[in-house]
Amino acid sequence: MKLSKVIGRVGFYMLLAALLFYAVFPFYWAVVSSLKSGSAIFRVELLPSNPTLGNYWALFAEQSFARNILNSLIVASTATAISLLLAVTAAYALGRIRFRGRSAILFAVLSISMFPQIAVLSGLFELIRYFGLYNTLIGLVFSYLILTLPFTTWVLTVFMREMPRELEEAAIMDGASPLRILTQVFLPLMGPALAATGLIAFILAWNEFLFALTFTLSGEQRTVPVAIALITGASSYELPWGRVMAASVTVTVPLIVLVLALQRHIVSGLIAGAVKG
User: pTM of the entire structure?
Assistant: First the structure.
């Protein structure tokens, strides 16, 4: 019996190590490759023999990569904030108020999130061009809402449905309006859910590529994914893989730090949304 427990535990840790290696090794290899220059990037080395920060220096000194990071930060943060604001109010209506067509609306919200981006690209382009938002950060925020808003609405609606009915009934007995119930009763309890949903929506907007490539034209308006895809070497014969790896590491580290900082809230939010109150 003890031997079987030991074998099971060893097998569990071996599986955990394999999964951890599978998830972490690509990022580790990107870090190692970003510290190499020239043909050294094609040599298989677990540690670079002659590490250099030249790729990072060239990335910021010779290209407007800092501006691209700022653009991504502005667009992703704005799209996430607007999505959470609209999703909270929609989730209250869809999760707490009974009305005809509620299920159909929820199904429509879920269906929108299932559409591939290429299917809505042409129609969205016409809208952005009609309103004069092409090659602007506002246009990107507008386009990103089609990705983040359905997701946040659906997740927060599921969470809102599981909130204790007694809290709402007590607030109604005290004469609280629906807006006051939402802002003063439910919102303080939804911190973990908002953190988890907002972080996932932020990452979704931060990594978006197709809309950013289609709806921007100048380098000053491009976001990080497009900027990385368009990185070139100093000459037409120089391969830019070192700079690409340096750019990938630069934009991934802040996300890792953000996830680790909000890890407790993320787990609490996901658990709270999965367990009935």
Answer: 0.83
129, pLDDT greater than 60? yes
Q: Are residues 153 and 105 in the same domain?
A: yes
Examine the domain organization and report whether 107 and 137 are in the same domain.
yes
In sequence order, what are the residues at sequence separation of 6 or more whose Cβ sits closer than 8 angstroms to the Cβ of residue 212?
140, 222, 223, 225, 226
DSSP designation for 163: S
Same domain, 18 and 148: no
**Which value, to the nearest 10 degrees, does the dihedral of the CA atoms of residues 112, 114, 118, 121 take?**
10
| pLDDT (tens digit per residue) in 35-68 | 887 777 777 778 888 888 888 888 888 778 889 9
What span, in angstroms and rounded, lies between the C-alpha atoms of 241 and 109? Answer: 40
List helix spans (H) across the chain.
2-34, 54-61, 65-96, 102-114, 117-130, 137-161, 165-173, 178-180, 191-206, 210-214, 224-229, 241-261, 263-274
Residues 265/251/134/109 CA torsion (nearest 10 deg): -30
Is 11 in contact with 25 (CB distance < 8 Å)?
no
Report the CATH number that the domain containing residue 89 is assigned in CATH. 1.10.3720.10
